[in-house]
Structures are given as C-alpha cells and as structure tokens.
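call fold(seq) -> tokens
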Amino acid sequence: MTALPVYRRRLAPEGLATFRQLRALGLRPGGQPVVAQLERPRRRRGPLVAYLYRVDLARPVRPMTPAKRAALAKANAARQVCPECGRDAGYRIPASLSMCSPCAYPGMPAG
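ret:
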C-alpha cells in the first residue's frame, strides 16, 4: 500500500480539488482513486482530513431525473413525520431525538 501525499490547508498543488470543490465546479470524481490528502490541524483533536482528486479526470455531474427528484421529495417528506404522534413536524426530525420536539420534551412550552 502506498502512502498518499499530505498537504496542509491551502497548500495543495493546482489541478487537485476536494469533493465539495468538484461539486461547485459541476463535476464528480467519476471513479478515480484519491491522489492526495488535505489536512487542517486542530488544537485539541486530530486534524480534519479531506481527500483530493484530479480535476482533469473528473466527470460532469449526472443530471437529476424526474424519478430521482420524486424519490428524494418522498424521502424528505417521510423524515418530517413523527413516528411517536404521527404529525407532520414541519422540519426534518433529528436522528438524535427520533421524534418531534413536543414528543421528546413533553413538559416544555411550545414555540
């Protein structure tokens, strides 16, 4: 196994980009391997790591199809329904609570 080159924040060479940077350009990695690693140091924890891909090998993002758009809308709507009371919460229910706020905190005043 070969080790990946590691660059500090803002010191990566031209032609390499993170996944989010590729997305901002309308691109995706397209199956290419990770070519380097970007690290941002933190004081009390390990560094934040981002993988770098070659921009010249990146492919365009696939367009959203109507079927995929409908499936995402259905999944997002399902995440708003509280499994405890069955009401539409009007927001995505956090996985940490797994229920709407009134169900999670019954004694709290609403609003």
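The longest strand covers residues 48-54.
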